[in-house]
Amino acid sequence: MTEACASFEELAERAAALVRPGRRALLGIAGSPGAGKTTLAERLAARLREVAPFRVAHVPMDGFHLADAELDRLGRRDRKGAPDTFDAAGYAALLRRLREDEEELVYAPGFERVLEQPLAGAIAVPRDARLIVTEGNYLLLGEDAWPRARAQLDEVWFCELDETERVRRLVARHEEFGKDHGTAVAWVLGTDQRNADLVAATRDRADLVVGPAVVGQRAGGG
């Protein structure tokens, strides 16, 4: 049964407890676009860097967006952000490398929001990082290569935000990165909403639901 947790400090303690001697832990944070996944992941990583006796790395799923040139080739540019516009197999392979914990340094791709393009080798994960926090929409999706990614994660938490606030944040984010208001609203209520509905259906597969009392504390991200 999916659990609920209301306190940020409880979340930090639970994340820290995933780390065991001699093994690296991987924590996933899922949720719909605009639900606060990135903000929560960043807050957790920052808090654990203050209090935990181990190193923490934040590796978002967004670096596995397919480049626009490939989306154009596939005819998927108009629904960028859908599950099949990511390299899910590549993401699962990276998580497996991180889980195996055999390399001194692993490079992960990042995502440049101004360009809206992935950036290869943007995130360095050293061997002494004992907790990896990763976040993305589709960590709990049960199709294609996504279950292979889920299999590498110790736990997956689901961010749940009031729908009106989630949409407001998402529109603001699209505007921040270059869309005019009308285009942003149309994208959020069209492409983004179809993806959000798909993600919401995976909620019950999460180990923990993080509700608005925590994910609503700071605007932005996710």
Question: Any overview of this molecule?
Answer:
The strands form two sheets. Strands 1-8-7-2-6-3 form a six-stranded parallel beta sheet, with helices on both faces. A two-stranded antiparallel ribbon has the order 4-5. A hairpin with a 4-residue loop joins strand 4 and strand 5. 40% of the residues lie in helices and 21% in strands. The chain is globular, with a radius of gyration of 17 Å. The protein has a single domain, classed as 3-Layer(aba) Sandwich (Rossmann fold), CATH 3.40.50. By secondary structure, it is of the alpha/beta class. The longest helix has 20 residues.
User: What kind of oligomer do you see?
Assistant: single chain
CATH class placement:
Alpha Beta
Give the overall average pLDDT. 91
Structural class: alpha/beta
Biggest sheet record:
6 strands, parallel
The domain count comes to 1
Going by CATH, the architecture would be 3-Layer(aba) Sandwich
**Number of E strands:** 8
Tell me the helix content: 25-40%
CATH topology: Rossmann fold
Strand-and-helix sequence, N→C? EHEHEHHEEEHEHHEH
Radius of gyration of CA atoms, rounded to a whole number: 17 Å
Q: Going across the biggest sheet, name each strand in turn.
A: 1-8-7-2-6-3
| CATH homologous superfamily classification | P-loop containing nucleotide triphosphate hydrolases
Q: N- to C-terminal separation?
A: 24 Å
